[in-house]
Amino acid sequence: MTLDHLENYLKVFEEINKSSVINGKPDLQNYRKKNWDEFVKTGIPVQRRGNERWKYTNLKPLLDLFQTPIKINDEDLKKYLESNIPVLDDQILIVLVNGMFSKNLSSNFENIKGFNLITLDDSIFEIDEFYKNSKLNQDPFISLNYACLSDVIKINVEKNDSDAVINVVYVSVGDNSKKTINNPRVLISGEKESSFSLIETYLEISDSSNSNFSNCVTEIILKEDSLLNHYRILLEQNDSFHIGNTRVYQSKGSEFNSISYSRSPQIGSNEIKVHLQGSESKCTLNGLYITTGTQHMVNDISINHEKPNSESHQYFKGILSGKSRAIFSGKVLVEKDAQKTFADQKDLNLLLSKGAEIDTKPSLEIYADDVQCTHGATAGHVDKDTLFYLMSRGLDKKTATGLLIKGFADEIINNILLDELKSFVHNDLANILPELNFEG
C-alpha cells in the first residue's frame, strides 16, 4: 500500500490536525502525526493473502473518497433519538454526532456522584492518558482513529451506592454531497469496586446514496474488583461501513460481561480484545449478529489470560440470509503464568438460504499446563422436520420460521439484564423478521 492510495485519508488527516493549533492543543498534533505514520505503514489492509485478520473480507470499498462530515444542528436530531434509541430510567445519556460530543443532546451527565466526563475541549484534558495503551494496539484502523479523531470522551466511574447506567449513542449523519468518515474515540475507566452498566448504541442517519464510514474505538479499563455489564448495539444502515474496535484491560478480581447485537451494514466489523491482567478476573462475551442481502459482518473476538485463576466465556450466534456472509474468529490465549485458567468458546450459526456463507474459526493457544479450555462451532439450516411440525399445527411457513429464528436468538437476547434494553432489542428483531425468510 503506497501513500498514493491514501491521499483521500491524508486530506482528512491534514484538515483535522490543523484544527489542533486553532484549539490551542499543539501536543495533540504530535500524537496524531505519530499515529498517522503508523497507519501509513500498512494503510487500509486490502491485501488478503497472508492477512488472516481480513482474509475473507474485501476492504477495497474503503479506499473510496471519504471526507470529514459537516457540522449539523443538534436540535434536528432530538426527535429522531427519542424514538430510535433505548431509553432507560435515570440513564446518563452521552451523544456523539459524527464523533463529536453533543452537550445539547446529552443529559444527566453533570453533577452525578461518582461519575465524571472529560472531553477534548476541557482544560484538564491530558493527552498522555488517552494514548498510553497505543503501543498495544497495532491495528491500522486504531491508528487511523487516533490520527483523525475530532474529539475524545473520557468517562470515569467511581464506587457508588447504586449502579449507574451509561448510554453512549454514536450518531453518524450523512451528507448529500459527499461520503464521510467519522472517528469516535471513547475511554471508560471503572475505578476500584465500581459497578455500572454501559450501552453503546450505533446509529446512522442518511437520506442520500453516499456511504458513511464509522471507524470507532472504545477502550475500557477496569480496576480491582470492579464490574461492568456492557452492551454493544449496532444498527447502522445497509450502505454504510462500520469498523469497531473495543479494547478491555482488567485488573485483579474485575468482571466484564458484554453482549453484542449487530445488524450488519454493508461491511461491519466488531473486534473485541480483552486482556485479563489480574488474577481472579473474569469476562463473558456473548453476541448475536444478523446479516441479510449482500451484507458482510466480521466478529473478531479474543481473550488474553495473563494471570492465574482467571475465567472467560465466549458464546456467539449468527443468523444469515440472502447472499450475505459472516466471519467469526474467536481466540483464547493462555499465557505461561495463567495457571488454573477456565475458558470456553462457542459459535453457532443459522443459515436461512443456500447463498449465505459463514466462515468460523474458534481457536485456543495455551502455554500453561493446568487449564480447562474448550471450543466449538456449528453452522446449519433450519431443521425441516421442526418446521414441518410447526406448520402441521396450523402455522404458515413464514410464522413458523419466525418462531424458530426468535427461539434461536432469544438465548443471547435474554441475557440482557436491563429490561428496557431487552425490550428494545426484541422489538428490533421483530421488525426485521420479515426479511429473514427461510429459503429452502
Jot down its keywords:
ten-stranded mixed β-sheet; 40% strand; globular; 20 strands; 440 residues
What do you see in this structure?
The protein has eight helices and 20 strands. With 440 residues, the protein is an alpha/beta fold. The mean pLDDT is 89. A ten-stranded mixed sheet has the order 2-1-5-8-10-12-14-16-18-20, covered by helices on one side. Strands 3, 4, 6, 7, 9, 11, 13, 15, 17 and 19 form a ten-stranded mixed sheet that branches. It has helices at residues 7-22, 26-42, 78-84, 127-131, 140-148, 384-392, 397-413, 419-432, and strands at residues 92-97, 100-107, 115-119, 153-157, 164-173, 180-182, 185-190, 195-205, 212-222, 227-234, 241-250, 255-263, 267-276, 282-291, 296-305, 311-320, 325-334, 341-351, 357-366, 371-381. The chain has one domain (3-382). The relative contact order is 0.09. β1 (92-97) and β2 (100-107) form a beta hairpin.
